[in-house]
Amino acid sequence: MAEKLIDGKALAQKMQLQLAEKVKKLEIEHGIVPGLVVILVGDNPASQIYVRNKERSALTAGFKSETVRLSDSISEEELLEIIAKYNQDPSYHGILVQLPLPSHINDKRVILAIDPHKDVDGFHPMNTGHLWSGRPLMVPCTPAGIMEILHEYEVDLEGKNVVIIGRSNIVGKPMAQLLLDKNATVTLTHSRTRHLASVCKRADILIVAIGQANFVTEDFVKEGGVVIDVGMNRDDNGKLIGDVNFERVAPLANLITPVPGGVGPMTITMLLEQTYQAALRSVEL
Ligand code: NAP
C-alpha cells in the first residue's frame, strides 16, 4: 500500500470550515454575504448531482446561494439575458454556468458573457490571460484544488518533473501554468503523445485527467512518485472510479489520491473560496 493516501475530503472539510469563519467575519465587518448563482440548463443527471452538491456546500458555509434551473429548450439569447441580469446584481459575486450545455447553445459565447470578475470557474479568456501572464484572478477550480492538495501534503514542486496527462482547458492546461508558476518542469501530454508510459515514468508527480477508467497502471509510475487522479468514470455497477488503476499503482506511489475522496471534494471548495475572494474584492473596490 502507498505510504500515504491523500485525503481530499478531510482537506475540503477543513477548508470549508475555515471559509465559514471568514464568511461570518465578512458579514459582521462589512455587511456582505458572498453570493453564488449556479445556472443549470437541462436535466443531465451528473450535472444535477454536481449542482445540488455545490448548493449544499455553499449554504453550509454561509453563502447566499441560488440555483437557476432552466429547460433545455431555452434559447441562447434567453440564457445570455439571465447571465446579464446576474452580472448586474451586486449581491452575487460568483456566476457559474454548469457545463455541458445543450448543443444549440454556444458555450464559448456563454462563457464570454459572464463578467470576468464573477467568473468563479475561471473559464473566461480574460481569466485565462491573467493566469498565463502569472497574475491569476479566477482560476479553474479543479487545478486550483490540486495545488491546495500539493501544498497541504508539502509536495515540493521546485525543479520537479511533473507530467500531466490530458490538455483540456478545464484541467490540464491551467494545471500546467499553475505548476510552472511554482517552478516545476512541466510536460503536458495528450492522446497523440508517443511513448506515453515511459514519459510518465520519469515524473516525480503525475497528474491524470483523461476520463478513461483505470488507464494508468504501474508501467506509468515512478517508484516513490506522487499520483493525482482527476478522472471520474462510472464502472458497470455505477461505482465512481478514477483514471488510475489504484490497486496496481498504490504500492509504488509515495502519495496518491483515491477516487472518490481525492480531487473531487476540493473542486467545490475552490469554487466557494473564489466566490468568497470575489466578495472580499468587492469590499476593497
Ligand atoms: P476532456 O476535455 O475530455 O479532455 C481529455 C484529455 O485527455 C484530452 O486532452 C485528451 O487528449 C486526453 N486523452 C484522452 N485519452 C487519452 C489517452 N488514451 N492518452 C493520452 N491522453 C488522452 O476531459 P476533462 O474535462 O479534462 O476531464 C478529464 C477527466 O477528469 C474526466 O474523467 C472528468 O470527469 C474528470 N474531471 C474531474 C473533476 C473533478 O472535480 N474531480 C473536474 C473536471 C474533470 P486530446 O486533447 O489529444 O484529445
- Overall mean pLDDT stands at 96
Number of separate strands: 11
Report the β-strand fraction as a percent range: 15-25%
Q: Structural class of the helix and strand makeup?
A: alpha/beta
Low-confidence parts lasting 5 or more residues at pLDDT below 50? none
CATH hierarchy: architecture of the largest domain: 3-Layer(aba) Sandwich
Number of discrete domains: 2
Strand order of the largest sheet: 1-11-8-7-5-6
Q: What is the percent of helical residues?
A: 40-55%
Provide the CATH top-level class of the largest domain.
Alpha Beta
Q: What would the principal axes of the Cα set say about the shape? A: globular
Cα Rg: 19 Å
Q: What ligand molecules are bound, each kind once?
A: NADP nicotinamide-adenine-dinucleotide phosphate
What is the third-level CATH name, the topology of the largest domain?
Rossmann fold
Largest β sheet strand count, sense and barrel closure: 6 strands, parallel
**What order do the SSEs take from the amino end to the carboxyl end, as H and E?**
EHEHEHEHHHEHEHEEEEHEH
CATH homologous superfamily of the largest domain? Answer: NAD(P)-binding Rossmann-like Domain
Number of continuous helical runs: 10
Could you tell me how far the N terminus lies from the C terminus, measured between alpha carbons in angstroms? Answer: 50 Å
Name its key features.
binds NADP nicotinamide-adenine-dinucleotide phosphate; Rossmann fold; 285 residues; 42% helix; three-stranded parallel beta sheet; 10 helices; single chain; alpha/beta; six-stranded parallel beta sheet
Question: How would you describe this structure to a colleague?
Answer:
With 285 residues, this protein is of the alpha/beta class. It folds into two domains: 31-118, Rossmann fold, CATH 3.40.50.10860; 141-264, Rossmann fold (3-Layer(aba) Sandwich). Helix content is 42%, strand content 15%. The chain is built from ten helices and eleven strands. The chain has helices at residues 8-30, 45-60, 76-88, 107-113, 125-132, 141-152, 172-181, 196-201, 246-249, 264-284; strands at 4-5, 35-41, 64-70, 94-97, 161-165, 185-189, 205-208, 226-229, 233-234, 240-241, 255-256. α7 links the parallel β5 and β6. α1 runs parallel beside α10 (264-284), α2 packs across α10 (264-284) and α6 crosses α10. The mean pLDDT is 96. It binds NADP nicotinamide-adenine-dinucleotide phosphate. NADP nicotinamide-adenine-dinucleotide phosphate (NAP) binds next to α10.
